[in-house]
Amino acid sequence: MGKTKNTSLETVVTDFILLGLSHPPNLRILLFLVFFIIYILTQLGNLLILFTVWADPKLHARPMYILLGVLSFLDMWISSVIVPRFILNFTPASKAIPFGGCVAQLYAFHFLGSTQCFLYTLMAYDRYLAICQPLRYPVLMNRKLCTILVAGTWVAGSIHGSIQAILTFRLPYCGPNQVDYFFCDIPAVLKLACPFSYL
């Protein structure tokens, strides 16, 4: 069981137990290997895209490839926030995650996920300009503007992730502490907040 800390009025949760996905015990090794291989292939595929964009100097100046490189970088990190912890579900390792670790995981997931969504919007805008304004495209979307817009997606994603984490964890958590999910996400964690624990 996870740890709780007693205060004068209530018990405060100090860590959460990630229950993960239910699975038959005899498939534990197979599931571990399947998800581990998928994770490694995802990382290698994204590294290959990053290396290709970085290795070819002609691609550095083209906004489409800058955006594709940033998308690959984000995809590497967002899968690293969730999958390693998920894979631990198939091992005898502890399923406990400290309260601060849960906050960090929720923030990182929403920060990277919303940054990725903003980046998709930016990529759609880039393709719209390239198709609908082909002669003016080099003027409308240059490397400097692309860099500024990409920085804006990171800032907007960080603000979004911060708001989500602050609003989720400003609620009191006094038990139970078992998260019925494989990572700390808002719907699963909110069910454990004291005002909602009766649901």
The CATH first-level class comes to Mainly Alpha
Q: Beta-strand level of the residues, as a percent range? A: 5-15%
The CATH architecture can be named as Up-down Bundle
Helix content percent band: 55-70%
Largest sheet: 3 strands, mixed
Q: What is the fourth-level CATH superfamily?
A: Rhodopsin 7-helix transmembrane proteins
Give the overall average pLDDT. 87
Order of secondary-structure elements = EEEHHHEHHHEH
Keywords: Cell membrane, G-protein coupled receptor, Membrane, Olfaction, Receptor, Sensory transduction, Transducer, Transmembrane, Transmembrane helix
Organism: Hipposideros armiger
Subcellular location: Cell membrane
Transmembrane segments: 29-53, 65-87, 107-125, 145-167
What does this structure look like?
With 199 residues, the protein is mainly alpha-helical. The protein has one domain (15-196): Rhodopsin 7-helix transmembrane proteins (Rhopdopsin 7-helix transmembrane proteins, Up-down Bundle). Helix content is 64%, strand content 8%. It contains 7 helices and 5 strands, in the order βββαααβαααβα. The chain has helices at residues 28-55, 57-60, 63-87, 99-132, 137-140, 143-169, 186-190; strands spanning 4-6, 11-13, 15-18, 96-98, 178-179. The chain has a 3-stranded mixed β-sheet with strand order 4-3-5. It is flat, with a radius of gyration of 21 Å. The model has no long low-confidence stretch (mean pLDDT 87).
